[in-house]
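Example 3.
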Amino acid sequence: MSILQDVTTIVAHQLERDPAELSETADLEDEGLTSIDMIEMIFALEDKFRIDLQYNANESDAQRKRTIGDIVELVEAAIARCHAE
Amino acid sequence: MRRVAITGLGAVTPAGLNARDSWDGMVAGRSAIGPLELPRQEKITVPIAAQVKNFDPLLHFPRKDAGKLDRISQFAVVAAREALADSGLALTPDLAGTAMCVLGTAVGGVGTMDDGCHMIYGEDRNRVPPLSIPKFMVNAAASQVSMDLGLRGTCFAIASACASGTHAIGTAFQAIRAGAADIAITGGAEACITVYIVVSWEALRVLSHDTCRPFSRDRSGLVLGEGAAILILEELEHACARGARIYAEITGFGANADAADLTSPDPENIGRVMQLALADAGLAPADIGYINAHGTGTAINDVLEAGAIRRIFSNSPPFVSSIKGVVGHGIGAAGAIEALATALTLHHQIIPPTANHRAPDPEIGLDVVADGARRIPLTHALTNSFAFGGLNAVLAMRRYDP
């Protein structure tokens, strides 16, 4: 499975939705994702990929993580950091 | 209507080991946030906290007794002894027989619990110390204060997360006003900087790795604190009859629940709870000269609190500051430390500054007292607390003018 598929599966699980209904560019807040969903999802992603995600709810960057595509980028960057170390 | 005076103060905070030193630290804007130091801390990534440093329980308790008290109860008892002595009250059997003791804490003696769990899961032992339960129970601090001072009136703990101290003081205030007691020993205590609790806060992604900068544009989250603050509340005529020094009067208490989000305050409702406190005190918004804000330094709290203040105060809000830049977030003790600060603000007519505030945030739109304490005539003030679980509490206080 690709990272996109994995992320979509985890997002869909958090939203209790069918992954097929979710597009890479949809605004997750519009899809009903709350701030607590986001934190739980970050935790699930870290477990799944065995990575540390740079995510702080206080940083304005956090406000820009709005789509599945944004989260895939976050995961890819964390995986790249792991390989670099 | 019976009136309620604050006649004694005691504190153990990251800023100082008594009320005076704590207040001096707040007025100086001297941040007590520093490197986090804890046994078994290797799994913690956040580098900072506002810890009570150099607190030696053996200065206050014989060795055998110190071991019976979790750190939270040690803080509470030391602050309560200071507050009672500061009040000058002589606890006659009659007075002690009805003296209330209501303390707020979010989690109780979690240091004891953390140590016990480490013995079982970490060290694979089958036993924990025999007094673990009475040390970590949520009412341990309230009970220890009651036992230490011989208070025999109504005594219990109040748990409402970050609003616990404020709810406790508000409850004691209502009881004295209603005639259920003449004096109350009230406030809050917390000592929850343990590995499990810090890692749990990290999972919420709201801790700052920098420092606590309430209302600043570059704020980066909250910093965990600990400590205790105790207030002696006394029916006003009782206080006047014995010539007591009165720091301030408590004039109103407002409390409500959002019944909505688990962690994010409801913007409408946190405005409403300020209105409830104002109405209880018989005040209009324009009467208020200062708000000691909840001001945690998280992105979301500060913007929602500021918006609610602007709305309730019709876009001409009073001065606002947050002492969390100095003492961090004392969780269940926070509301009590802030009530103590608000009483001393009115008593000394000095607003403590918001330490670590560097740049105004256009989204805040408040007159945040940032660069140094401000000396200004003040009559009425509010102090705000908003807790996880949507539990809000606000106290109104008045400068005592005989």
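Chain A has one domain: 3-84. The two ends of chain A are 24 Å apart (CA to CA).
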